[in-house]
Design goal:
The protein has 14 helices and 16 strands. The chain is α/β, with parallel strands linked by helices. Strand 10 and strand 11 form a beta hairpin.
Length: 419
């Protein structure tokens, strides 16, 4: 029975993935850009979403951001050197490009700088298409410079300059049949809402006005995922407690449902919620989520139970308490993605592996391949190959950890709980 349920859940996940999400099984994604991409966080949150929401997809992720980069390149090499070394060898099927923050020179709009940007961006696109036939390019509009929580440094502000660059990216995407991703507009809207409710913490979302913190990168990842048509639903289960029957189930296989003093059932969901329970502990994470409607748009793990006697109920999952709810709230539906559940904890385990593989690749790339490029140590090639194997092993563990598990649910009247 367990194998049958697992196959059903994975089949549901695979079908769900075909419903319009941008990535597909077999894709290799390279995140290319400047220091904001070098931070790896919006990419990591994106990777986490894909691994936990689509555990049956085989997608790989590589991070190739370099601080200070322009469309012409930078400290890490010219643009052609960067692409040749940091993109093409991975043979990606998907490349995201986010540049522009440095290209505008943090100054009022300058036509010469804009021309360099537009011509340079066009060169990047043409080079990617030439060296990677069939590649799908996501052209990312420049992320925001924070002119919201602090006054602009010059009339109009620097973000207005970036919006002019963004308009070019949008037009280029349409002309070259690229996927466009606006990582500016929705983040600015969230900054404005956050600044209205909590000005002190709002200013910390992008503390230096350029580089988002962890919470700010959550906002960037949301914008990218929405551009990729990411679904909001983790799973949805509706049970009629009075009748003791399942009335609706999406992306979850429910079995062994019975009502014998308490309501019990087993459920195998097709995916995991996101690793976001820190929102209860971290003011910035909570502010970012509340200001962007992140959970409602990307992390809905719905449980609805009707036909209950009025009162308070405790929900247990695998014997541990996951939450306490009124019958009225359960009848309307609760979002388990915001609770402390085994599923959320499993998602955090996945995140741990994702972070490790990012670190391993970054060390291999920057320290051995780039910094020691001209060194002739006999063991260097072997060390790089060993790190590549370790990276692959960690990714395999990451994917295995994201696979669904059966969980036992029990709903008990709060008055029946042992003290």
């Amino acid at each position: 029975m367990t194998l049958v349920l697992l196959l059903l859940a994975l089949a549901g996940a695979a079908a769900f993935a075909q419903s319009g999400f941008y990535l597909k099984s077999g894709d290799g994604v390279v995140f290319y850009g400047d220091s904001i991409t070098e931070q790896r966080l919006y990419g990591l949150f994106t990777e986490m979403f894909v691994l936990t929401r689509f555990p049956s997809l085989h997608v790989t992720f590589t991070y190739s951001g370099w601080s200070g980069d322009h469309v012409t390149g930078g400290v890490g090499g010219t643009i052609d050197q960067r692409l040749e070394r940091d993109v093409f060898p991975y043979r990606p099927t998907v490349v995201t490009v986010m540049l522009g923050m440095n290209d505008g020179n943090f100054s009022p709009f300058d036509q010469a700088a804009y021309d360099i940007y537009s011509h340079g961006y066009e060169h990047i696109v043409q080079s990617l298409k030439m060296h990677l036939p069939g590649v799908r390019i996501t052209a990312i509009e420049p992320s925001p410079y924070d002119d919201v929580t602090r006054p602009p440094k010059f009339p109009g502000g620097y973000n207005a300059v970036l919006l002019r660059y963004a308009r070019f990216v949008r037009e280029l995407a349409e002309r070259e049949h690229l996927q466009d991703a606006d990582l500016n507009t929705s983040v600015v809207e969230a900054l404005r809402r956050a600044n209205q409710t909590d000005p002190k913490h709002a200013a910390e979302l992008i503390s230096d006005r350029v580089h988002p913190g962890v919470a700010g990168h959550l906002l960037l990842s949301k914008a990218l995922l929405k551009a990729w048509n990411a679904p909001s639903l983790v799973s949805s289960v509706t049970i009629d407690a009075a009748a003791g029957r399942l009335t609706d189930s999406r992306r979850a296989s429910v079995t062994n449902l019975k009502h014998d003093g308490s309501l019990k059932w087993d459920s195998l969901e097709s995916s995991l919620p996101l690793a976001l329970d820190a929102k209860e502990k971290d003011d910035l994470i909570r502010l970012a989520l509340d200001s962007s409607n992140y959970v409602a748009e990307l992390d809905r793990e719905e449980l609805k139970i009707t036909g209950l006697t009025p009162g308070r109920y405790v929900l247990k999952i695998d014997g541990g308490i996951a939450g306490s709810y009124d019958a009225e709230d359960l009848a309307k539906g609760v979002n388990l993605a915001t609770a402390d559940t085994p599923m959320v904890r499993q998602a955090f385990d996945v995140m741990g592996f994702a972070y490790r593989h990012c670190e391993i690749h970054d060390f291999r790339w920057r320290t051995l391949e780039v910094t020691m490029a001209n060194d002739t140590y006999p063991s260097k090639a072997k060390a790089m190959a060993d790190l590549d194997r370790l990276d692959s092993e960690i990714v395999a563990r990451e994917r295995a950890t994201a696979q669904p598990k059966i969980h036992h649910f029990e709903l008990v009247g709060a008055s029946k709980q042992s003290p």
